[in-house]
Amino acid sequence: MLLNNLDDYMKKYPNKRPDIIQQYGTAGFRNKADTLFHVTFRSGILATLRSRSTNGIIGVMITASHNPEEDNGLKIIEPDGSMLEQSWEKLATKIANIPDDNLEQCIADMVKELNINLKDTVAKVYLARDTRKSSPSLSIALMDGIKACHGEFQDFGLLTTPQLHYIVRCANSNGQYGEPSEKGYYEKLSHAFLRLTEHSKQQKLHLIVDCANGVGAQKMKLMAPYLIEKITFDLINIGDGTLNLGCGADFVKVNQRQPDSIELKSNQHYVSFDGDADRIVFYYRNDRDGKFHLLDGDKISALVAKFLQQLLNESGLNNIEMIVVQTAYANGNSTKYISDTLKLISDCVPTGVKHLHHRALQSEIGIYFEANGHGTILFSDNVQKQIAKCSNENAKKLLHFIDLVNQTVGDAISDMLIVEAILDNLNLTIDEWDSFYQDLPNKLLKVAVKDRNVITTTDAERKCVKPEGLQMAIDKVVAEFGPQARSFIRPSGTEDVVRIYAEAQTKEMADNLARKVGNLVYDFANGIGSKF
Ligand code: 16G
Ligand code: ZN
After folding, report:
1. Which one, 7, 134, 332, 514, has least CB within 10 Å?
2. Is the pTM of this model over 0.90?
């Protein structure tokens, strides 16, 4: 029998909302939690089949990241810790939407088409969840799906998304990447951080961490004791308020201000995680202007690139190829800093972590960050071997640095320690880091249109292809705002809107440019663009 007790399970997990199309998008399934039970049950089946087809352990994380508390979602993790293979994203969408009565046939067809061996393979799925109220009951639906498909599972309970990615990779590499447990994660990262900072002049470091009222709070409480000899933390938004509301990385980045509950003090580093702790931004109060200053994913990229370049040079390894991967949202001045000051190659890819990760993998060292604070650094096996062969102090530092990085996916805890270790090593204040370059003033807008899919783009989303004439109209408007102005539009992958980004020499110009481009989008998308 292909599936166990399917009739009983279908009674438990019927598709109550066939009118809602559930799409496995840029970051997995995401929707109102109460619409996701059948999707989660079916994803348990899918993950089990993926495990058989790869002959590896698959991960499933239950989370909706920076979205509101009443949402939830699923992210499926490949055996190497990366995000679900693209061809399987389509299968996930198909299984999620098939009518109840056709589910068994759909799965039987899939098994046949993909030639999945059900007899001689063992399927294993690791699952974990964030702190949302709906997450425990969705976990049960997921485990039922795995059981229905004769799979084995291990439930890790509460974890951050990157912790589950890490554990899945460790388990599939037979422990080579690390011990496949939460404790193993804390030990590896804290050991690397303490070794990397042991020779620095600064005494103790201190950080205020906004945990977005999410899972990061509980995990930081567990991590902190391992690091206490070098760094201490004040944890705020630890679950006393609503998840991602008025706090968290997305709030801080979008509103360009600190969380509602914080009053910024001088000489103090602040960070905000998102709800599942895979994104991070830094900020501080600059005493010269008394204002909030944000250090986003682009600034983190610039800092990492500068540090690695210096270490590689000092280790005599300057022939290693290193690239910085960004998206169109990267601030123009960050791209300029990377190419003109650091003289490094930068590349631009479409929005979504999987695109950045994929491009970074093609280089010997690939640094990737989205401006919104999601990113990591990838080192090829060859580079790691080359570094391990050098015996100088800088090469040893590089090895500790590599151990501090979660190479599976962006990780707020790991990225936080990376930044603090680099500042400590380079003896830089946060203000000095901030001064690497000055962000061009920018503005993000969203426009609701009848159908966002009428907008199509090319050139890593920097040029609009359809509706015809819209790009020409945008170019014309941009030209009115001087040589530093830039603007692009793209349909959102997670919301029913078109996003507009604009940057220009002054804040007022950026705001005006965004507004004008927004009007163009509205008119063209609603079919009245020809008047321009
Ligand atoms: C998802 C992506 C994030 C991207 C965002 C864009 C992952 C894990 N997350 O959250 O990288 O920046 O979508 O959202 O890939 P948008 O398409 O609505 O602008
Ligand atoms: Zn997230």
Report:
1. 7
2. yes
